Amino acid sequence: MKHLLSTADLSRAEAIELLDIAEDMAQVRDREIKKLPVLRGRTVVNLFFEDSTRTRTSFEAAAKRLSADVINFSARGSSVSKGESLKDTAQTLEAIGADLIVIRHWASGAPHVLATSGWVRAGVVNAGDGAHEHPTQALLDAFTMRRRLHGAASRGTDLSGVKVTIVGDILHSRVARSNLWLLTTLGAQVSFAAPPTLLPLEIDSWPAQVYSSFDDALEARPDVVMMLRIQKERMHDAFFPSEREYARLWGLDHDRFHKLAPGALIMHPGPMNRGLEISSEAADSAAATVLEQVTNGVSIRMAVLYALSTGTDISTTEAGV
Predict the structure, then answer these.
(1) Which of 57, 68, 132, 305 is deepest in the core (most CB within 10 A)?
(2) What is the mean pLDDT of residues 64-81?
């Protein structure tokens, strides 16, 4: 495994092995010295063409806990803002000696181009490309679900039979796409609930049930409800009448929160728009996993960086933590 570009590329065995390695990496957090020497001498470059807080800092923390050298490269204020191409930027990073490049880009497919163009020899991790995919977010979501639903017995298990409903802006969501492919591979039953204007045209070919009513979706008693942020920065048209109307029909408000099945999880990739797609009551409840997702993101990204750096089949690799 040299690159992580899409969750659709992961087999069930590979996905479970990544989750299991992340379990090992999570133990590092509880140590007095929160570091492993496994990537000492390696250089990880965070190449971000879009603003990010959670993802960039999570990858930075993950790399540093594995003892890698980290270079943070932001397009804003760099040569990119002067017109430098992705190719030239990549070749500059190659000359610096990057071993792994974590890239977030506004253009769908940019990480794939970087990984397959021959411009760099480094491994490439997709940290979000346009409205295409965000594989490490899906992995940390699956890791969080597995831990919450299966507890201490989670190692080696998948998510067979778990019902996951993803609600909101599916059209612009790379999180929804990555979760669909990964969760389906792990045996979960995925459904979407969204207004028709926020559904992609190709959704009929996806392995998911689609609800045109959030309340109807809740009648199916999902084990996990994942709320998505309305991505206003990607919207150039009117996709719904008003924020108030959206919150009334598609928000996880007081009434819908109390309709959830006992033990159901509430997830959100962040940042949250409180009062729009989710109420503070739901976001701050014991059912919510939002902060756990952030914490687990470091463990998952440690697992991904480790797996890619070893250059071996993760299905036969032990993390040795």
Answers:
(1) 305
(2) 80
